[in-house]
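Posting this for the archive.
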Amino acid sequence: MNEYWMSSMRNRFTNKSHVVNQYQFFSWKSGVVVPESTKSLITLTDAVLLANNPKNNDNNNGPENINCSKYNGKFSSPSSSSSPILVHCSGGGDRSSVFVSFASLVRQLQLEERVDVFQTARYTKSQRQCMLQTIAQYDFLYRCLIDYMDCHHICNNSDTQL
């Protein structure tokens, strides 16, 4: 079974068409604090950020093209041609907050080659109530970051203090 589903829609009411990519994440059911594995969230985050990267105009961003061996984790700097990303879950905060925080940390890692989990969590929590409420969610964020860096060969964990 796929971990997420993606569909694309075009709005042709104006002279310009705007592509909307919708992702539905199946691997993290409502009521589960965090998934056991980080892989599904890493795969989804890679797909969303890659599809939203303005340098990727080939529309070849399906899940079959996202994996650790093919993708080096590098993106261009954000630009005005990047589209906003809308995220929601049934509860409005639990799963959304982890995805938003993780995606922000991945972008920070790609652009600055460092992450600040505390400030990212603090900012996320300042934007909406019920964001990042449990220790398990923070632990999952750290596990996702470690697995992301390992998967994309971003740093050598033996040389890095975590």
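Residues 94-112 form the longest helix (19 residues). Helices lie at 39-51, 94-112, 117-127, 135-151.
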